[in-house]
């Protein structure tokens, strides 16, 4: 839990972020891994050709620490205490370099499987965690319909398998998944089951079938979908609990969530979209720190370790999985008096895995050494996401991002 930003503290407790959800398979139940939530959307029980993993870094990660613009002199002038020395950076080119704690991702980077797109974000600055998250995940400015972009993406699929509509636990999908299409969440891949059906007799499941088999309306449809989905999730529950191929995850909520996501993909039940929310400590108004101490060291290392472990764990399945990171906004260019950074605008997005053309991308706007200066946005975040959903998932950009004309980013190749 963050102690430096009251608004984000309220959001991360789901008091505002999630909103009302559907009932019994119409919405989604939320998997809780401490501060991390895994939500999975299914297209069918057949094998998915390609899988999108959306990793949200809740709290506004500082992209200027994760991918450092070492050739911009304003970066060092604005951050006299917390700037990362140029000679310590990883994967360094003539302008950018990765935070030194992200060394676990170097094998993926060197293999050309990691792209970093800088100066991305909302077209207009929004410094409210709650409002920015909603705007980012609706991705449909001006619309009165409360439908997230991932829900619209799911709606492009012609399949109607009930695993699109199971709700167990907290029925509170993230905004990106919210809408008329069914989604499913679970506290863990081993605990996706009918509540109370643990006595080995099957009576609870039988009674549920009897009660809901001919029930009309939304509740009846949702209940039937939930029962079928639980049964069809069995291949995931049967996957080995231990990571494959010697994979190592960070020992935290993010690592556990990405491990669960890997098991879901290896279970091969047709998952096409997996959203993982990581809310632990990215809102660094205080104590972002240096290379000797501070919160960014641990967060950057955990992020890199878990992403690397995820793709190692997937083995041959990695060839169909593309992961993208996103955060609601970036942070100010200039450090504050508490070795931290206040709310800003532009940020960096990582794209990792299948179909990625590795390297640094984006149009650099230049930085200013001013207390109120932001990293300006030169690439709308929807252009990055659009390139993935069109080239990897074969979806319509116009349907997923209504009214938006994406620009070419160049970091993603067609499937």
UniProtKB/TrEMBL annotation:
Lineage: Bacteria, Bacillati, Actinomycetota, Actinomycetes, Propionibacteriales
Pfam families: DUF1501
Protein's name according to its UniProt entry: DUF1501 domain-containing protein
Signal peptide positions (record): none
